[in-house]
Every structure is written in structure tokens, then in C-alpha cells.
Amino acid sequence: MTEGPIVILTGAGISAESGLGTFRDADGLWTKYRLEDVATPEGYAKDPALVLDFYNARRENCVGASPNAAHSALARLERARGDVLLVTQNIDDLHERAGCTDVVHMHGEIMAALCARCGNRRPWEGRMCLTDVCPECGMDGRNRPDVVWFGEMPYHLDRIYSAVTNCGLFVAIGTSGSVYPAAGFVSEAAAAGAETLEINLEPSETASRFDRQIYGPATETVPAWVDQLVGG
Ligand code: APR
């Protein structure tokens, strides 16, 4: 049994086998869209309808997808141990639907809306469009998904850094290690004395920073790793 709390960082790879696209693989979303157009404040200012449509498609895919064996295994780990913090870069809600109760969405959530004028946040299902009116400030034309775009500050960083620098084991699952600050968590954890483990389809950009690596599809590797930790 690993000593000390566990922090798990997940990325798009954990949801790949649920049918949600990753970003940087050969057929990833960033090979089909320019991230500057659809995932930046500048892109939203220039063409909000295009951005809303991009995320409407992401939301539709998310609603149509189901959690896979990797999501379920992490929920089982959370139930078996009280000291697991799950941090995700994913905007989907598959960890929650698999039964995880405390998920830190550092890049926001596709099933939530943010008013770009007054900051009101609320759950959101279905399509988002420019005529949506904010229930708080009464303005239309400023509705956006509550997701963190490039150039914006990720959410919950204080809580995340505190957990990362006080854990016994840091695990990154299904992330390419190309977006900071998340890509830097492994180094922060290691510097503070934690063991580090990468679980991914193939070596990520930061693979050499981890003490141990397990490679293969998440639906196989993650349940097997959880079995080792807490039994099947
Ligand atoms: N099992 C495990 N890992 C997988 C699987 C799988 N079935 N399929 C793909 N992967 C791995 C890929 O090898 C890759 O290393 O998942 C990783 C996905 O990397 P990215 O597409 O870069 O996704 P992520 O790391 O989550 O991206 C970080 O970038 O665009 C932004 O905000 C977006 O949160 C996202 C951030």
C-alpha cells in the first residue's frame, strides 16, 4: 500500500476509449481545428458563434459517451482510500458519472456556462447560442462554456499545488505533458519527495521525469494498477 496521499492527474487519454477525441494524437482535435480560433479569449472575441459551435459539439459528444473501465477503477480507488485527490484537465464529466465524488476540474467543465460579462456560473445542458440571456445580469451575447482557454488561469491551483507538494504518490494518466502548469506537477511532486508514476498509451513528453511508467490502453492499465493498490 502506497504511503501518504495520492494525487492523480488525468488527461484526454483516459476518456479516449469512451469515444471522446484527444487533442494531440494523430487524429486529435488540434489536427482538425486551430486552437487559436476555438480555445482562446481572442478566438471568442473574433467569432463567438464558431467557438460556441465547437463546444456544442464537445458537449454533445460528452452527453453521448459513457465512463469506461479506467474511470470506474479510479472511482473504486477513491472509495477504497480516503486520501485520493483526482485532478483532471478534462472538461467532460465521466469521472463524476463513474462515481468519483471530489473531482478538481482545473480546465473547467463543458456541462457549465460562464457569463463573460458578470462571471455568473451555472450548470448547462444542450446547445449554447449567442442569444442566451444571463439570469444574473440580463445580458445576451456573452454566454460561454465554463472552460479554461489558452491564456487564461487554470482553476483551483492553490488546492492542487498544496496536494501535489504534500502527496506520497503522484500519478499522471492519459496526458501528453505538453500543457503547463499541469505538465509541471510531476516535477513539483518529485521535488517534494513523492514517488511518481506515468500511465499512458505511450511515453509522454515528460515521461523521463517519472520514476515509473506503465504503457497501454487506459481501460487495461488503470484497472490493473488499482487492483495492485487496493485489490480487485
Ligand atoms: N489510454 C491511455 N492514454 C491514451 C489513450 C488511451 N486509450 N489514448 C491516447 N492516450 C494518450 C496519448 O498518447 C497522449 O499522450 O493520451 C494523451 C493525450 O494527450 P493530449 O491530446 O495532449 O491531451 P491532454 O494532455 O489532456 O491535453 C492537455 O491541452 O488542449 C488542451 O485544454 C486541453 O486539457 C487539454 C490540455
Write structural notes for this entry.
This protein is an alpha/beta fold and 232 residues long. It has two domains: 1-19 and 67-107 and 154-232, Rossmann fold; 21-64 and 110-147, SIR2/SIRT2 'Small Domain' (2-Layer Sandwich), CATH 3.30.1600. Helices cover 34% and strands 19% of the residues. The chain has ten helices and nine strands. The protein has helices at 13-16, 29-32, 35-38, 41-46, 48-64, 69-80, 94-98, 157-164, 185-191, 218-230, and strands at residues 6-10, 84-88, 103-105, 108-115, 121-123, 143-147, 169-173, 195-200, 212-215. The strands form two sheets. A six-stranded parallel β-sheet has the order 3-2-1-7-8-9, sandwiched between helices. Strand 4 (108-115) and strand 5 form a beta hairpin. Helix 6 packs parallel to helix 10. The longest helix is centred in the N-terminal third of the chain and has 17 residues, at 48-64. It is globular. It starts with 5 loop residues before the first strand and ends with a helix. Adenosine-5-diphosphoribose binds at residues 11-13, 16-17, 22-25, 28, 89, 107, 174-176, 178-179, 200-202, 204, 217-218. The site of adenosine-5-diphosphoribose has 23 residues, from helix 1.
